[in-house]
């Protein structure tokens, strides 16, 4: 069940966030895509719970997007963060 819940959240995140290879989809459009694949790619119970908690989903997304935008504002090239990521990994491991 945990994997089914994460699948819905992960696809929503992937659809609604800018990636180097695509633009972000509107949140309502992403929800429609997920609902359209309910019972096919996604567990219908998870999709129903996700949609019923829509206000909470958007609140969590805004918090996450805000923190991501701060990091992304430092550079537009994904490879430019490699030295910074190495420092973060070293700090968390050491």
Largest sheet: none
The strand count comes to 0
**Average pLDDT number:** 83
**N-to-C span:** 34 Å
The structural class is mainly alpha
Order of helices and strands: HHHHH
Radius of gyration: 16 Å
CATH topology: Hypothetical protein af1432
Which residues sit in consecutive blocks of at least 5 with pLDDT less than 50?
A: none
Number of helices: 5
Shape: globular
Q: Strand fraction band?
A: under 5%
| CATH domain class name | Mainly Alpha
The second-level CATH architecture is Orthogonal Bundle
Oligomer: single chain
Question: How is this structure best described in words?
Answer:
The chain has one domain (2-93): Orthogonal Bundle (Hypothetical protein af1432). The protein is mainly α and 94 residues long. Helix 1 packs across helix 2. 6% of the residues are buried. Helix content is 70%, strand content 0%. The chain has helices spanning 2-16, 27-36, 44-52, 54-73, 82-93. It starts with a helix and ends with a helix.
């Amino acid at each position: 069940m945990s994997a089914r819940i994460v699948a819905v959240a992960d696809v929503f995140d992937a659809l609604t966030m800018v990636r180097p290879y695509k633009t972000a989809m509107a949140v309502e459009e992403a929800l429609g895509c997920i609902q359209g694949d309910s019972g096919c790619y996604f567990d219908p119970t998870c999709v129903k719970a996700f949609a019923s908690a829509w206000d909470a989903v958007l609140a969590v997304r805004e918090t996450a997007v805000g923190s991501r935008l701060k990091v992304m504002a430092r550079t537009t090239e994904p490879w430019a963060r490699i030295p910074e990521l190495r420092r973060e990994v070293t700090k968390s491991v050491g």
